[in-house]
Amino acid sequence: MAITTISSRELNQDVTRAKKAAKNGPVFITDRGKPAHVLLSIEEYQRLTKQRRNIADSLAMPDAADIEFEPQPLTIEARPADFG
Fold it and tell me: How many domains does the chain contain in total?
């Protein structure tokens, strides 16, 4: 995995270069010499976020209404207690 660092100015001048570099690894974008943003391919972003996403995080997202969630019905049956 290659890590690329470019300035905000370079990004503005050549977005295509940054997008191509993101296919090979993260692209750190600097503002005044300090890392400010990271550009990732969508595949890498999805790989990273799948491991950490839970239902609470998903519901907190602005587009939570677009998430399909159909839990299976839960049936709970009473049984006699076994004290033996």
Answer: 1
Distance of alpha carbon 10 from alpha carbon 6, whole angstroms? 6
Instruction: Please give the Cα distance from 23 to 16 (Å, whole number).
Output: 11
Q: Tell me, what CATH number does 39's domain have?
A: 3.40.1620.10
Do the domain assignments include residue 30? yes
Domain span at 22: 4-54
Spatial strand order of the sheet with 27-31 comes to: 4-7, 27-31, 34-39
Report yes or no on 83 lying in a domain.
no
- Owner of token pair 């799948």: 50
- Look at the block and give the residue holding tokens 């939570």: 64
User: What contacts 9, CB < 8 A, 6 or more positions away?
Assistant: none
Other C-beta atoms lying within 10 Å of the C-beta of residue 24: 12
The predicted-structure confidence for 33-48, as pLDDT tens digits, reads as follows 999 999 999 888 888 8
